[in-house]
Each structure stands twice: as C-alpha cells, then as structure tokens.
C-alpha cells in the first residue's frame, strides 16, 4: 500500500503545540494558537467535534463542563449556543472571554503559514458527518499540504480517507483502561490504512508498544520501512531529544517553546 509522506516540505523535526500553547493559555482557543505562533512553534495540534448545526468546532471534550463550566454536549449544540461559552476563565482571569473557535476560523487566520495535526474526536463507528465536513474545509482553504488528520478511532480515519485521499492520517493509541484492549498496540493502523503513527510517548521505547510489518513488535521509529512516528505529549527536554534521536519524525508538546532541542 502506498503511503503519503508526512509534511515533506517542512523542516524536521516536526513540532506541534498540543491544543495550542496549552501550558500557558487555555487549550484549543485562538489565544493558545496565537501564542504558539508568537513563540515560533511551526505546528498546531487541535481537536474537533461536529456541532448539531453542522460546523466542526475546535474543542477536546465531548461536553463543555471542564473548560466552559456548562453541561452542554457539543454534538447536541448549535453554533449560537457555543458562541455564548467562555472557554478561558477556567485557566485564569486573564483569559476571560476566550471563545470556542470554529475550525474554519483557525484556517482563516493561520492558513498555510503553519502545519496542523487535527484530531477527530469520535468514539463510535457512526457517521455523523464530521469527516466529510473536515475534508470540505481542507479543500475550501486549499490546505492539503499543511494538514494531517489523526484519531483514536480508526473507522473515522478510514472514512475521512475516502473523502480526502491526499491528506496523511495517523492512528493514535495508548494503554489506558478507556482504550479498547484490541487497539492498545496500534492495531488500528490496519483498519485506518494510515500514513504515520501517534503513540503515547511512554510506549515508544517499550518492546510491546505496537505491531510492525513483520509482526507484533515494539516501535523502532528509525528502522527502514516503519511509518513516521510522532509521540505525545512530550514536555521534558531530555526525553524530547531522546525520542528525536531514536528516529521520531516529531513530537507533540504542551509548550514546545520551553524545550531545549
């Protein structure tokens, strides 16, 4: 199977600000994304859900309680309701009034000046239209060369791939209890037919981390034939350097600007 290259036009290592510069600013807000750009971070990692009114919205959780203090499920919400949410005060009074952005607004402001890792948030195989909406926005803004798409859900990735075959995708995994046992070693890549891998950083060096082409083995990101590896979330400089030396294509960090690479 032919795989798409991961951002071949951008310098290595690939560095992503996790939910924007979330160590400092409220996650998944324009403030966090702008701060990442101001500090010279070349890539953004962000999460999307689909609103009931049809718009992909940039937010991690399925509901607004943790970051906005409201018991509102995004999949049941309309845009007018989301516009009223305060996504910044939980992080501190200096961020009061930050809003939950639409993905279209992020694309409009940043365009192709950066690269994006967009995580599809979905826990079922049901098609609610998020993948098609995402593919449509990537096409509308002509960002095929600047966007990669990832998810814990390999079915969602396979669906997105049908709509946007020119955009590289990655399966994400960890070994936490809420991760299905049959996906805890990266097995979702076979369903997703993905182009790169996003393991929990703690699994990259473990011998049981993920299957490779020759069988169930640990990730050896520098070995010929393996997919590019971009682990998350890496906030320690020594660990980041070790991962990159091992052959990882990049890292996802809450504050990449604080890392000594």
Tell me the number of strands: 10
* Largest sheet composition: 8 strands, mixed
CATH topology term: TIM Barrel
End-to-end Cα distance: 34 Å
The secondary-structure class comes to alpha/beta
Write down the domain tally. 1
Residue share in β-strands: 15-25%
Number of contiguous helices: 8
The pLDDT mean sits at 92
Spell out the CATH superfamily: Phosphatidylinositol (PI) phosphodiesterase
Order of helices and strands: EHEEHHHEHEHEHEEEHE
Q: What general outline do the C-alpha atoms trace?
A: globular
| Shape-level CATH architecture | Alpha-Beta Barrel
Helix fraction, binned, reads 10-25%
**Gyration radius over CA:** 17 Å
Unreliable residue runs: 206-225
CATH class: Alpha Beta
Please explain how this structure is put together:
This protein is α/β, with parallel strands linked by helices and 261 residues long. It has a single domain (14-62, 103-258), classed as Alpha-Beta Barrel (TIM Barrel). It is built from 8 helices and 10 strands. The longest helix has 11 residues, at 130-140. It starts with 13 loop residues before the first strand and ends in an 8-residue tail after the last strand.
């Amino acid at each position: 199977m032919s795989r798409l290259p991961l951002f071949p036009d951008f310098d290595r290592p690939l560095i992503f600000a996790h939910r924007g510069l979330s160590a400092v600013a409220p996650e998944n807000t324009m403030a966090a994304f702008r701060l990442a750009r101001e500090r010279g971070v070349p890539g953004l990692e962000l999460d999307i859900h689909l609103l009931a009114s049809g718009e992909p919205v940039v937010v991690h959780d399925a509901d607004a309680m943790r970051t906005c203090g409201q018991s509102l499920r995004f999949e049941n919400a309309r845009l007018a309701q989301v516009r009223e949410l305060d996504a910044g005060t939980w992080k501190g009074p200096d961020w009061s009034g930050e809003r939950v952005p639409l993905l279209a607004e992020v694309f409009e402001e940043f365009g192709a000046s950066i690269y994006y890792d967009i995580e599809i948030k979905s826990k079922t195989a049901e098609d609610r239209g998020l993948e098609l909406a995402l593919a449509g926005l990537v096409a509308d803004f002509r960002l095929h060369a600047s966007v990669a798409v990832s998810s814990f859900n390999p079915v969602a990735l396979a669906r997105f791939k049908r709509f946007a075959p020119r955009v590289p995708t990655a399966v994400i995994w960890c070994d936490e209890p809420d991760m299905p046992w049959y996906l805890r070693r990266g097995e979702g890549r076979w369903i997703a037919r993905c182009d790169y891998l996003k393991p929990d950083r703690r699994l990259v060096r473990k011998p049981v981390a993920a299957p490779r082409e020759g069988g169930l083995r640990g990730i050896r990101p520098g070995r010929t034939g393996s997919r590019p590896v971009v682990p998350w979330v890496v906030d320690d400089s020594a660990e980041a350097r070790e991962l990159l030396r091992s052959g990882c294509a990049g890292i996802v960090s809450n504050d990449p600007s604080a890392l000594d690479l």
